[in-house]
Amino acid sequence: MTELEGYLYDGQSSARLQVRLQVDDGGRVRLPDGTLLSWRSLSVGAPLGSGPRYLELPDGKRFETRQHTDVDNLDRRWRYGSGGQRLESRWRWVLLSVLLVILGGGAGVRYGLPALAKAVAFALPASISEHSSRQTLATLDRWVFASTQLPQARQQALQALFTELTNDQPDGFDYRLYFRDGGALDANAFALPSGEIILTDQLVRLSPHPDAVAGVLAHEIGHVQQRHGLRRVLQSSALPLLIIAATGDLTAASSVLAALPTMLIESHYSRSFEREADRFALALLQARERDPAQLAELLRRLESRQTEAGAAVPAWLQSHPGTEERQTLLQTK
Fold it and tell me: CATH fold of 2-81, please?
């Protein structure tokens, strides 16, 4: 038998009575008036520093004691069973909770954020992406690119090709094509969120046929239409994305898009984005009666360059699906 000394409050006033509760070997609690209660019918409060421990009785009364060790032992024995079952039970719940948090967090990052980023990207007004795109191009021109060295006639021919591809697109973007010397970025192409596409001189010179350039442009147009640039930046900025989703304030995206120049240079689209852009390019090239196999040949040339003198992987290939996979798709009739 265990005896607990303390004070009993009637639940109606601050008056208290010094009493002694007895807990027998069957887990029954005997009150001063002789009433017997099961220990499990009591609500045992958690310890608060060095303060007293409270036991709430079913009739609204409260018992106060400072015998913390005895209360813990009784609670462990009569509420959760003997031995270490209480601790074991708690650890099971803790481990299960941690596992659920990990799984939930992983699912949120893998599925929730991309889905939310897609919804926000398609809801953003054009004015926001246009401003960020202008700022991005200005930054790249200042620190990365140099003026194009392509002959004027070649530029005009490619502009005509670009107009052919973007004409009658139902997405409402104001597509524009810019030529730049890529410098350290070498053979490359970029799509800005508002529809501006940058093509480097190096990539143009490496292209074996106008249809190869058409394939590159069609691929970048696919990135614009599917908002891949916006979605990539938004996915990397979880907090502002959640604020946008919770408040509906789309202008909060402006601060996120400030990171677009860095994202454009230092990171790459996911392979699912690249496959989506490839499928779009294939459909567009076929609709314009252009040969997708020319883009496959350009991919072969880009890949062969990386093996020459230990050259780095061309930036335009770094995040793309394997060349063989892409060639199989692009050579589909």
Answer: PH-domain like (2.30.29)
